[in-house]
Design goal:
The chain has about 120 residues and is an alpha/beta fold. It has one domain: Beta Polymerase, domain 2. It is about 30% helix and about 20% strand.
Length: about 120
């Protein structure tokens, strides 16, 4: 996929995450954070896929890296991750380290700074 399309997919994902947090509010939401990493941050063109790590409000033993934790297939569908173009991974909010490339940003920064590490906190 072209870089421009990848950035558009990230914007759509950010909007879906914001919508998710509004539709399913709670003191302990399932989805707490999302990270974009990999080739899109380096400006690679073309890209095979956009790499995303999504942080869940589940303990680490329920969110093993490169697995599909219980209750997440519907979330992948809701966020349109399963439509293609994404390589997505789930993480526990209790893991002590962020994916290697990420630093703090708000959701709005996603559309403004697509070529940098982006840490998206679900509001």
């Amino acid at each position: 996929m072209r870089y421009r399309r990848a950035v558009e997919k990230i914007r759509i994902l950010a909007e879906a995450c914001e919508d998710f947090s509004k539709r399913f509010p709670g003191e302990e939401p399932l989805l707490t954070e999302a990270y974009v990493f990999g080739g899109v941050l380096r400006g690679a063109d073309p890209l095979e896929f956009v790499e995303v790590a999504l942080v869940l409000n589940l303990p680490p033993d329920e969110v093993v890296w490169e697995t599909t934790p219980r209750g997440t297939p519907w979330l992948a569908d809701y966020l349109r991750l399963s439509k293609g173009g994404f390589a997505y991974f789930w993480r526990s909010h209790l893991e002590t380290s962020k994916p290697q490339c990420c630093h703090s940003r708000g959701w709005s920064a996603l559309s403004l700074v697509p070529s940098r590490s982006v840490f998206m906190k679900v509001a």
